[in-house]
Amino acid sequence: MNRLLTSAFALILAAGSALAAPTMTAENAGGAMLTNADGMTLYTFDKDAEGVSNCAGECAAIWPMLAATADDKAEGDYAVIDRADGTKQWTYKGKPLYTFAKDAAAGDVMGDGVKGVWHIARP
Q1: What is the mean pLDDT of residues 66-77?
Q2: Rounded CA separation 25/38 (Å)
Q3: CA dist 73 to 29, 78, 118, Å?
Q4: Averaged pLDDT for residues 97-103
C-alpha cells in the first residue's frame, strides 16, 4: 500500500511540475495581484490583443514575458500562447503576462501605470 501511495504522489508531483502558471501570492494597496514563482509582480499591456502579445524587441527587453515551455499546460484562467518569434508565453484570461525589468525585488510594482498602458495583473 505504501508503494502505491508513493507512486501516486510521484505522479501528482510530475503532473504539477509541468504547470508553471503564475500564482496569486501577493497583495498591495490595490488588492491581490498575480506574481511569478519568484514573487515578482506580473503585468498586462493594453496594446496586446486577446491571446496575442504585441510587445517585442526593445519592449520585450524592458517587459520580459512570462515564458512558458512546450510542456506547460493551460489550466483554468491560465493559457499558453505562441508568440510571433516562436516562443511561448503565459496568459491570464487571454491577456499575455510580463514582468518589469525595473522591479528589483518581489512585491515591487514600479511598472504599474507606465505610459498609461501597463497595469498590475489582478485576479
Answers
A1: 93
A2: 10
A3: 31, 9, 26
A4: 98
Give residues with Cβ within 8 angstroms of 13, minimum separation 6.
none
Beta bridge partners of 92: 78, 95
Left, alpha or beta for 115 (phi > 0: left; psi -120 to 50: alpha)? left
Residues 6+ apart with CB under 8 A from 68: 20, 80, 88, 89, 90
The model's pTM is: 0.81
State how far the Cα of 55 lies from the Cα of 98, in Å rounded to an integer.
Answer: 9
| Residue 116 amino acid letter | G
Three-point CA angle 99, 102, 103, nearest 5°: 60
